[in-house]
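haha ok so turns out i had the wrong file open the whole time. this is the CORRECT one, sorry everyone. sequence first:
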Amino acid sequence: MSHIQSDFQRFEFVQFESHGHTTRFRYRLSGEQVTPIDFEERLEWPLGLPAPDPRQPAVYRGLCNIHRMLGISYYKACCPPEIVLHGEPMSDREADFWEQVYTNGLGEFFYRNGLDPRGRVRFPRQGGRDPEPIAVPVPATEQVLLMIGGGKDAAVAHEIIQEAKVPMALFSLGSAPWIKRLAAALGGSHWVVGRHLDPKLFALNAAGAYNGHIPISACIAFIGTLVALVGGYRAVVASNERTASYGNLVWHGMEINHQWSKGLAFERAFQQRQREQLLQGPEYFSLLRPLSELAICGLFARRLRYFNCFTSCNANFQLRDTGQTPRWCGTCPKCLFVYLMLAPHLSQARLHTIFGLDLLADAANLPLLEELAGVQGHKPFECVGTPEEVLAALSHLDHQGRLQGTPVQAWYDTTLRAQVVDPVGLWQAQVAPGPESALSELWRSRLDAYLRAH
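then structure:
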């Protein structure tokens, strides 16, 4: 631990201010022997929607939630032992929720920084019960807000919602070039919330503070729910697959999952917290939860019009823009995984129109492939699926004869082939919808109707 982490013993949630379409969330790191550092993060709300008015109880509660959530970026710089609230105290239930979000959402961060997560995050609590839920009028017409991030999954969710004839608008936190490109292809309204982190956070990181992965999908869920509330949308729709719930490794007895805030555990906890705070407020759910990534790619492969409008490589979505945005770096676990998931569903020529290169022809990718297949190490810290999905894709490509002539063929023959006792059964199990989700009966029926038709 550097002196920076040990000097700051308190993380404080200072009051936020919301005026018009700008909200400023304030935080402070403090200690007995150091000058406090004050931070201010700013959100710019879509000008085409009503400004979030904190005088409205439901909006105020939503802003409080966002204040708590965005604080995670500043808390993790030093992970102080004491958290201080300036404002409404927390009930036991609320403190339990936030401790769960911070602990599980920062799981990868704790692991990479060698920090024991057990009992580390403690929100102050006053005990007692939550305030009564606030009644929210149900919008007269059914409209939903579809979260997009520039990837293929949102395009599949868009097709399902469109076929169900439910009006929708798009929502994103920020507007990276590939988000804009996908939004243009999908069409319709696109509401963008601008996020501006305090530059002092980057300076603190450069000086030796802790840094690492945060549960950004949880941040987007809270922000999107408030956009839905002020915009009159009945639901916020995510496009997270079932295998997002599959963890990377175990650390100090805790499962670490890079995608925890995309997983079913967070989705259910978030839904429950929203129900405890709002009556008839906007729903939040992942429409694709019953599906594997392999199945989602099968649906996407039939939508040629999106092939030039998406990317999954995180080089395009860096927090600080480097000015270089390659569509596919071709060397990261995410690129290789998405290539594998799409490959069984597309011809080599179609794959080339998307990726511009054959990722299975590069022997340098074999170590990544071993991690993805669960042969070596652990599941990479990326938004990738399970070893079973990878094995199903490889066995399918092998059956198609498409591994021949690649460095992967010999490796597959000696390392994986014996594991595939029933290739057809493995494939069918991976592409079949699963039973677990947090979907309402209505939305599950809409998803099932789409799957039957396609």
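The mean pLDDT is 94.
again sry for the mixup
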